[in-house]
Amino acid sequence: MSTITHIEIRDPYLIDHPAVQELPEGPLDRDSLGRLARELAADPRVWRPYVRHDPSGRWFARLLWRPELEVYVLGWAPGQETTIHDHGETAGVFCVAEGRLHEDHTRRAGRVPTGDRLLARTLGPGDVATFGPEYLHNLGNREQGPATSIHAYSPPLSVMRFYDDVDGTLGPVSEWRIEPPTADPALATATSGQRDTR
């Protein structure tokens, strides 16, 4: 069992940030999401007050939520990583703000033979990865120091499915439902939970 702590942030600086104010209405394409994530990652005033690098469990904060978009900051202590997962029907991006993250990924939808090799890459500050609903990946910090990343999704995440070896193929074994924030945007909410990340 790994603890994942999640908090909601309502920061006027972020809401009024030029990168947010310049966004078009409606769902965003991957290029727009990538520009947004890169601009927010390059401005520590957006994420530095909220990020935590907690060695006892993964940590993230939802910085912004709109019906067509959400943005998170994730703090990664050394050795922390996800398990292989998808993002439901959501398109998304992540940009490394500090440190380095390692990603194992594939763009094949559905079941992936376990013996097939996932593609691997290392991303540093300013590097952006974009993905669509067909994307499976594992992301983690395999370095000695902390890392921080900005993640943007359009539409907002509603479900993530986690994968493992099922009869010789990489198949879904669990899912995590993601709820929109509370109806009152003036309230900051904090929740923590546990999820089996084996």
Brief summary:
The chain is 12% helix and 43% strand.
Structure description:
- It is a single chain.
- The chain is mainly β and 198 residues long.
- 12% of the residues lie in helices and 43% in strands.
- It contains four helices and 13 strands.
- It has helices spanning 12-15, 18-21, 30-41, 44-47; strands at 2-8, 57-66, 69-76, 91-98, 101-106, 112-113, 119-123, 128-131, 136-140, 147-154, 159-166, 169-177, 190-195.
- The strands form three sheets. It has a seven-stranded mixed sheet. A three-stranded antiparallel sheet has the order 7-5-9, with no helix packed on it. It has a three-stranded antiparallel sheet with strand order 6-12-11, with no helix packed on it.
- Strand 11 and strand 12 form a beta hairpin.
- It starts with a strand and ends with a strand.
- Residues 184-198 have low confidence and may be disordered.
